[in-house]
Every structure is written in C-alpha cells, then in structure tokens.
Write a structure and sequence with these properties.
The complex is a heterodimer. In chain A, α2 runs parallel beside α6. By secondary structure, chain A is an all-alpha fold. The two termini of chain A are 16 Å apart. Chain A is built from 10 helices and no strands. Chain A is 75% helix and 0% strand. Chain B has a domain of 173 residues: MetI-like fold (Orthogonal Bundle), CATH 1.10.3720. Chain B contains 12 helices and no strands. The longest helix of chain B is centred in the middle third of the chain and has 36 residues. The chains are: A mainly alpha, B mainly alpha. At the A-B interface, α4, α8, α9 and α10 of A face α1, α5, α6, α10 and α11 of B.
Chain lengths: 271, 307
C-alpha cells in the first residue's frame, strides 16, 4: 500500500512540475531572452512578476527555470528512448538467440561497463560543436547497458516457458514469436527501467550543461541554471537554490517512482 | 586462484585497447585542429607544425606511433602547454585528485557500511527510515548541486569552512571537497549494505551463531560482515568511476588544480593530446582497479573462481 502511495505522490509531483513548465512561460508577462540591465540579480518578488528574481542580465528567472525544466525533461525522455531502443533490441537478440552469440554480446557489454564514458561524451561534445541531437544520442548511447542486461535475462527465461514452446510446436515463425509472445511480456520490466534511466539521463545532461558543454545560450537547462547560480550565490542565493532544488526534486521523484514501480512489478511476479 | 588471476589479467587487455582506440579515433575524427583559432598561418608554417606533431602521417601510422610511445610510458607533447609533455602535466595534477578520491572513498566505505549495518539491524524502525530517506536523497542529488549548496551554507553563510582552495592551507581545504565527493557514495553503499546485510542475517548459519549464545555485535562482526560485503565489493568498480567523474565537478567548483580541471580546460582548449592522455590514463586506472577488485573478489569468495 505504501508503495502504491509513493508512486501516486511522486507521479503527481512530476506531473505538476511538468505542467508548470509547460504553462508557466505562457502565463508570465516576461520572456526568457529579454535582457533588462536596470534590473539585474533582483530578488524574487510578486510586484513585478519576477517570481524567481532575475539573473545577471536582468532576464526573468521564473520563465528561464520553466524553460530549463522543459529542456531537461525533453533531453531525458528522448535520450531514454534512444537507450530503450538500443538496449531492448540488443538484449532481446542476445537472449533469444542464446549460445555463442549471446556469450560474445554479453562479453562486449561487460567490456563497455569498464569504460569511462562520461569522459568520452565530454570529448564528443567538445569535438563536434554542441548540437542538440548529439546530446540525445550521446546520453542515450551510454545508458543502454543496464537495459540490455535486464531484457536479455528476461528473454532468456521467457524463451523456455510453455507458451513459447506451444507456439513453436504449432509452427509459429521465430519473428512472430518474438513480437507476439516475447515482446509483450517484456513491457512491464522495460517501463520500470526506463523510469530509472530518465534520472540518469537528466544527470548526464545537467552535468554537461553545468560544465558549459550542454545546451547553448539563450536556451537553458536546469544544469546550466545551477552553473549560472553558482557564480552569483554570495549576493543572489535564490539564483542557485531554486534551480538546484527543482533539479533535486525531479531526480528524487523519478528515483522513487522507479523504485516503487519495481517493487510493484517484483511483487506481482513473485505472487 | 592463479588460473583465475591470469585469465582476469588477459581479459583486461582488450578492454584497454578498445578504450584507447575509441578515444584516439574520436579525437582525430574531430573537425578543426588544435591550432585553428590562432591567426591564419602561412601554409609552410602550418605544414611544419603538422610535421612536427606527425599530423601529416596517415591515421593508422599515427596510431601505431602513439601506441609505441604509450608502451614506453610516453603520452606525447601537450598542444597548448608548450614545453610540457602530457606525462609531466598528469604528474603534477594527479596527486591532488588521488588524495581527494582516496579520502572520499575511505569516508564513503566507513560511513556507508556503518549506516547500512545499523539500518539493517534496526529494520523497519524510524532510524532505518531516516537512513534510507537520506540515502535516496544522496543518490538522487548530483555532486554539482550538493557542492555549491554546501559551500553557500557552510562556507559563505556560516563561515565554518574555507570556500576555496587558495583561501586556506593544510587539511581544512580538503574537508568540503571530500565530503561533497563522498556523499552520493555513502548513500549508495549504505543502501547496498543494508539490503545484503538483511539477506545474510536471515540465513541459517546466523541463526546457529545466535543459538550458540553469541551477542549481536559478535555475530555481525565475525559472521555476517564478510558475506554481506560482497555486493559492496563488486560495486567498487562503478564507485571508482563515479568518484573520478565527480572529482571533475568538485575540482572545478573548489578550484583544485587536479586532473579533472586539466581535463575540462584541455577539452575546451582543444588540447587533444592532453585530453587523450587523460582519458587513456583514467581508463587504465579504472581497468586496473576493476581488475584488482575482481581478483580480491576471487580471493574472498571461492565460488566465483569456478564459474
């Protein structure tokens, strides 16, 4: 029961944050790129509708923060989908074919686990100018390993189940078995692990943005806002604390949500 | 054990080669050279520079040259810090990162294992919930958020600790960076320890130990701790990688002249030989430490040797 409640609470918070990020900039009288050098680093205030204050160029931080949430969530979701596609196909092939191919493929995954990926991603971002598409692909490409392992394990056990045996005996083709009988049974665990991949993708994206390698000005993301906030934290602590708190909240919610879903999934499977 | 050790060592070699080749290719596939943003150079000067750094040779030859240098411990000259080799630069920066990382790891193990064990023994109580709540928070919040927030409160507002590297001397300047770097690892290790300790405490041999009249402290210390530490040990590989990554951020924020800072500066300056050298160095370090963990694991748990 408490597991269910934590799923509902965290999903609710995430939904609220996402809605605010979508609607907020639309309601606010300010926009994300207009500078106002007469009103820099002002504190949050209701009177001029700078709800989160302004940054060092006088831009409205509320709208920028909402925009940052949008971009952070967008990058995370797309990157997770990239890792989902790679991880599921890789794991399903290894698990279903089995034997030598499986052994070789899993050996390769083990090897990749030992790589300091983040350094390669930094290298990639620097070398090929910062384009948006590359961020998605790079983040997705480093997060598929867990997914591949889990899907492979699940496929391996599904392959031996009676209903697959029965399908094979009645002459169903291999391709059809994979799509009609194996894939639907993978959905549960895949959903759980995507929820756990999203915070990892957010982490990488905001890490890159924090180093100044992620999204470029005047666009922004939560990581870039934290980075900007650090520079002025002594005089304008809100510029750091607000995006930092929101980033922490989003990550915490995704982790709790993923954990809750996993417990739920495990409970259903063992009963 | 010998066979296991030798197999592990042989297995690490292809991994290392793969990383080096991947990093090398990436650096060389990058558009734009390290000398691009300076004034347009006369063609013959450019050719001279290219020749001096062997950039005019075909790629496979450059790779072989790099590899043979590497085998002799030579990572080549830095493109930006003239008159310095990459090896020298790493030599000056690494001691700071090593000290930082080693202290963070020690702190994480000490606090993580203790907190996890206490939570496991008090499972379901308020104490357990507090430890687990803290742990989930610690896992979720990235280092680059923890670091500035800690600096803001402990150094800027309360002035208990020095905020920057250059504003203090001795050990006090390591305190905040080490805590920041260790926090997520403390959290993760506490979770791992709690889960595996609960599992071990439910086994038959623990019941037997209790039945012999041993106290809880003795049972945990003598019987439960070693088997419960196995998952923590296998987490050491990822933990080392996480601490290396985290130290990039921590060094940037606190202004520590370590390897992470050199890496970021090198990447932004397109100092490709330096960046490549650091990637190769870190990768070798990670592979080596993973190898050590594997061998240690084999020594502690005989079952893995026969898989």
């Amino acid at each position: 029961m408490s597991g269910n409640r934590s799923i509902r609470v965290t999903a609710g918070i995430l939904l609220a944050v996402a809605t605010a990020a979508l609607v907020g900039p639309w309601i606010s009288p300010h926009d994300y790129a207009t500078t106002n050098l007469e009103n820099i680093l002002s504190a949050p205030s209701l009177s001029n509708m700078h709800l989160f204050g302004t940054d060092d160029l006088g831009r409205d931080l509320f709208v920028r923060t909402m925009l940052g949430i949008r971009i952070t969530l967008l990058v995370a979701i797309v990157a997770s989908l990239v890792s989902l596609v790679i991880g599921v196909s890789y794991g399903a092939i290894a698990g279903f074919v089995g034997g030598r191919l499986d052994a070789a493929m899993m050996r390769f995954v083990d090897t990749l686990y030992a790589l300091p990926f983040i350094f390669l991603v930094i290298l990639l971002m620097v070398a090929f100018e910062r384009n948006f598409l590359l961020i998605f692909v790079a983040i997705g490409a480093i997060n598929w390993l867990d997914m591949a392992r889990i899907v492979r394990g699940q496929t391996l056990s599904l392959r031996e189940r009676e209903f697959v045996e029965a399908a094979r005996l009645t002459g169903v083709s291999t391709l059809k078995i994979v799509f009609r009988h194996i894939a639907p049974n993978l959905i549960g665990i895949v959903v759980v692990y995507v929820t756990l991949t999203i915070p990892q993708a957010i982490l990488v994206e905001s890490f890159l943005s924090f180093l100044g390698l992620g999204v470029q000005e005047p666009q922004t993301s939560l990581g870039a806002l934290v980075d900007a906030g650090v520079k002025h934290m002594e005089g304008a602590s809100w510029a750091l604390l607000i995006p930092a708190t929101l980033l922490a909240l989003i990550l915490l919610c995704f982790n709790f949500l993923g954990d809750g879903l996993r417990d739920l999934f495990d409970a259903r499977h063992s009963s | 054990m010998l066979r296991y050790t030798v197999l592990r060592i042989l297995g690490a070699i292809p991994t290392l080669l793969l990383v080096i080749a991947l990093a090398f290719l990436m650096v060389h596939a990058a558009p734009g050279g390290p000398f691009d943003d300076e004034r347009a150079l006369p063609a013959d000067v450019e050719a001279n520079i290219a020749a001096a750094y062997h950039l005019d040779e075909p790629l496979p030859q450059q790779f072989l040259r790099y590899m043979s240098g590497l085998l002799q411990g030579d990572l080549g000259p830095s493109y930006r810090y003239r008159d310095y080799t990459v090896g020298e630069l790493i030599g000056t920066a690494f001691p700071y990162s090593l000290k930082l990382g080693a202290m963070a790891m020690a702190l994480a193990l000490l606090l993580g294992v203790s907190a996890g064990t206490v939570a496991a023994l008090r499972q379901g109580t308020a104490l357990d919930k507090v430890v687990m709540g803290f742990s989930m928070t610690g896992i979720s919040i990235p280092v680059f958020v923890i670091a500035p927030v800690l600096v803001l409160f402990l150094a800027v507002k309360l002035q208990w600790l020095p905020a920057g590297w250059s504003s203090a001397t001795g050990m006090s300047r390591y305190l905040l960076p080490v805590i920041t770097l260790a926090l997520p690892q403390i959290a993760y290790i506490a979770r791992l320890t709690r889960a595996s300790m609960i599992d071990v405490l439910g086994r038959d041999f623990i019941r037997t130990a209790h039945a012999q009249g041993l106290g809880t402290a003795t049972v945990v210390r003598v019987h439960a701790l070693k088997p419960a530490m196995l998952p923590v040990l296998s987490y050491m590989g990822p933990a080392i990688a996480a601490i290396l990554t985290g130290s990039v951020v921590v060094e940037e924020i606190f202004g520590i002249p370590g390897l992470g800072q050199f890496f970021v500066r090198g990447a932004l300056n397109r100092d490709y030989t330096l960046v490549l050298g650091i990637v190769v160095f870190y990768a070798s370090l990670i592979v080596l430490l993973n190898l050590l963990v594997d061998i240690l694991y084999g020594a502690i748990d005989p079952r893995v040797r026969y898989r």
